[in-house]
Amino acid sequence: MAILLGVDTGGTYTDAVLVRDEKTVIASAKALTTKDDLAIGVGEAVGAVLKASKIPAADVSMASLSTTLATNALVEGQGGRVALIYIGFRERDLAAHGLSDALNGDPCLVCAGGHDHAGAEVVALDEAAITAFLLHHKNDVSGFAVAAQFATRNPAHELRAAELVAEITDRPVSASHQLSARLNGPKRAMTAVLNARLIGMIDRLIGRAEQVLKDLEITAPMMVVRGDGALISADQARARPIETILSGPAASIVGASWLTGADRALVSDIGGTTTDIALLKDGKPSIDPAGARVGPYRTMVEAVAMRTSGLGGDSEVHVVTDGLSGGLNLGPRRVLPISLLATQAPDIVHATLDQQMRASVPGEHDARFVQVVAGGSHEGLGAREMALLQRIGTGVRPLADVQRARIEQGALQRLVARGLIQMSGVTPSDASHVLGKTAVWDQAAAEKALGLLARKRTGSGNVLAVDARSMAEMVVNQLTQQTVLALLEAAFAEEVEPFASEPQELARHELMQRGLSAGADLVRLNTGLNVPVVGLGASAGSYYPAAGAVLGTEMILPRHADVANAIGAVVGRVTMRRTGTITSPSEGKFRVHLETGPQDLTTQDAAMQLLENTLRNEARDHALAAGAADIQFSVTKDIRTAGVEARSVFVEAVLTVEAAGRPRVASG
């Protein structure tokens, strides 16, 4: 009998679940996610589930962790300060695929080097420029990313640059060819930058989580869920944290399939920070062939085909005062709910809210607070940011006391983006407390905060809402509206016969929206979803029935939906894919592009056999390192030819080898 422990660290809650033999949920438990040290919440949730199940810690055969840390960090623009070494490209290429935006002012070196499509060196690597760059920035960044032109055809320059990083600095380095075997240098560079930015965060989480499990006397090996729902070892996740983006959402899709047995459905998982939507086909999630998209970033990481939006139970409520009626918008940033903050610092929260309620006019920063997140890195901060950190100090402070001039707004946002401070404000979670849908935190504080928001005036001069309850209803209705739009966008994006317009435009189109409300007179309009929706997440039961009613579809809310991510973390498989390419630089020559450099052979069959054997060995070794047992292989080949003078000529071949197996479990 195998006892499997699944853990998911979400934006608000950390979930733990015990599953017997991948068949039965024994027990589940929740704890608040502790943002400044996620492992504290992990320990509390695991301790609670062990206590509830009465199962000895020593009986746990395997532990597996899924996490939204990487996803949330990219959605919210957080992570370490990094430097990019961009080899063989032009300065203007930085704008491609949003690479400049991803760097967001972090240092970058564009230098000579790189190879051509066939793997031949175009220009010698400018080692002197790289050395000078490393010496200048070795102490003001947390890691380096390296991307060279056609590195997937010959990685020699990336490997040499990585060697220099190791020799001159003590920082980790992410080489683009090790993260993706596909062409598209700027996109690979983007992936390497994001990987470097996440390394410190994921390393700290895994290290602390392993220690917490050890303290609880759990000695079983720990796995981590990858973005495609497969399992990898903790060491592999440390080296390639970018592969854990969409880890939590991917685990939820696997969990949804296990819980419901649904064959074809949209799966929508609402957490504290994001709503993640994917389509189940034949009971399985599909892999996004273009690479995972998170927030504004398109990466080259294999992950579940999923749409992630910054909409969750803890999304910041923004009041729109423009126009006669005004309105609301939610997200994309997560803030700490006022009702939760009040349980941690009741005196300062209630005293501040009471003082703001007594003011004759609403304040710009009413019901907003800020606090420093412990353990963050101060590398690269300016004088204004450091002054704000000092002003905030160690406790909870009203934002009105901290931001004294509009010029400080930019510095404040930079501190939020770096994960150095945590903002608190009104969220849908607070609205749920006011409406009685939730009763876990401080309802009185939520009512005061919603009451302060209700006092804000629209362009007509009228107050936004008559009281806190009316304001709360507006917030929940807005969440329903944005959830409906997110589900429609996902459905339009997955249509077998694509529409000409973009999913965002189609979801918001007047005909679509009028059809949802049957709002036409002479024209028959009836729109909605044609597939059921599986609603997951702790708050799905509160918010999703209304969305299902608007869309005219079945809303499936399975038992254990609130811990589906944790369930998915332990019922997945270890899967490793390795991809390689063969080109033909001249007739009768077949070039195999390997990690050790290009190798030429005289026959296509010999080249194909060499590449397949190499990829098979790499995939097997990585699967074994991840803890796989009973490994099975599958090989896909994409061979491209061209017709020349009535004969077929080899152009290129792309091989992918997949090694998959069940994770090994310790004997209990």
Briefly, what is this?
The protein has 668 residues and is α/β, with parallel strands linked by helices. It is 37% helix and 26% strand.
Describe the structure.
The structure is a single chain. This protein is an alpha/beta fold and 668 residues long. The model has no long low-confidence stretch (mean pLDDT 89). It is 37% helix and 26% strand. Helix 2 crosses helix 6 (185-215). The longest helix has 31 residues, at 185-215. It is globular and about 85 Å long. It contains 21 helices and 29 strands. The strands form 7 sheets. Strands 3-2-1-4-9-10 form a 6-stranded mixed beta sheet. Strands 11, 12, 13, 16, 23 and 24 form a 6-stranded mixed beta sheet that branches. It has a 5-stranded antiparallel beta sheet with strand order 27-26-25-29-28, covered by helices on one side.
